[in-house]
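Take a look at the protein record below and tell me what you see:
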Amino acid sequence: MERIRNFCIIAHVDHGKSTLADRMLQQTGTISDREMTEQVLDSMDLEREKGVTIKASAVRMLYTAQDGEQYEFNLIDTPGHVDFSYEVSRALYACEGALLIVDATQGIEAQTLANLYLALDANLVIIPVVNKVDLPSAQVDEVKKDLINLLGCTEDEIIPISAKTGANVDKVLEAIAQQIPGPTRDIDQPLRALIFDSHYDAYKGVIAYVRVFDGSLNAADKVMMMANRVRLQPVEIGVFSPSMQPVQRLEAGDVGYVATGLKTVSESRVGDTITNALKPAEQALPGYRQAKSMVYAGVYPTEGEDYGALKDALEKLQLNDASLVYEPESSEALNFGFRCGFLGLFHMEIIQERLEREYDLDVLFTAPSVEYEVVLNDGKTITVDSPADLPNEGDIAEIREPWMALEIFAPTDYYGPVMDLVRKKRGVYKSQEYPAANRVQLNFEIPLSEIIIDFFDELKSGTKGYASMDYQFIEYRAGDLVKLEILVNEEPVDALTAIVHKNDAYHKGQALVSKLKEIIPSQLFVIPIQAFSQGRVISRANVKALRKDVLAKCYGGDITRKKKLLEKQKKGKKRMKMVGSVELPQDAFMAILRLEN
């Protein structure tokens, strides 16, 4: 038991976390060179392409230290993006130590800091590692100084490595064996095992990744989920090495999996505690909460007959991803589809790519929106996640929107552009810190609706790619918000409705109307496009009619004949306008996403 080491790797996106895990698997002989691929633990093509871990995973390695003792290493790989911070916190709680990796070419970034604070909250032993020291642009000494200031460690404790070439990875393995403590355990207590991730298997049902804290679990034991009281008989239990290997028993301190046979991931949530059904524990492990969607969007098939296929695809995705929520909705402009809730914009992008790649679907996502709390005049509070569902303005006492605590980490040269961007997006400056000589950490509070569309892109372009950010939900706050509707041919288009700040309504309405004027194809009649807010039209543009030259056949002759033909054409156009319907191209729905400020 003293020779078990449970640890994870925390790093910013693309700082070499998965590559270091590969080298560890090779150097401990867990994977033979024949089976080796790049980023072994990132099983999805998307993860390898984007260079970011989306699903957590675990692996067991056996390492023989310099003192001749053999150690069992359990590496719990954590997701690498701010949208999945709850899963990261659960994975950290399942460990006793963490490797903090910093890229020698880029230095400390926002996500590094955010995950470091989570690790310190979980009382983990931190081993600092500087990666990519073999690159010509590496600034090893500066990054070491920053780490010493941040952690209060000595220079000797920081291990410089190159995960790509494998240089000094043996020192990292030795540091894990010597510095990270073994798990404390109480094998006589009732079973308590933390679920830090899960995935769906067609044959074994939901497979829960667990860290056993107290007691032991035998293959024949009946178990119970403590959050929803679901009882079950496991199909099998086992460990990861790195593929799943069945075992007969998991004891306190072990990391492994439980194949539950359950049919939905929602019955086995991340952060839940598994206990023995016949002799349950009195208290669950702390920190469990339901995943809460922050961003909502409508998902529609571009071809109406694909609705059934889209429904099946969302059901299958939800089996693997309990944080995805969806319900059917219909739109006059887009027909039948689903309203989906996501953890954040990156999560939404991943789901969109998976629908298109894995299920070969052509789907349209409407503009993302956030969930608002609407207080009505009679004192009732309702939540609205689709702007089209907002009640009449006369019934609303106030609208509250979600606010986030935003940390931006950037070189001091870009202080001005960051401040300008956040001010433009209704952000409120709170404080600043200087964790390193030429880096500044700026703390703001900002509405979530301002950061979900193009904030990150603008931040990256304004700071030449050097800034990074992290955000957390604080609370709902009342705001001066109004509903902005777009009328095409005097009919409201529900998919283009938005909730905006009162001061931005005119500019956004005008920009949207101008954009739609370019996109909507001309018909044989004039199409008015109007932006409507607070009971009045605030902007209008017309798409000119196509003209058929009805006078082409009149060469010479009386003017009254020409007038008669023009009058007849005018009447026809008027009648056509009353019955004509305008087909909106898909670009129109994307235009709302790409509105230039």
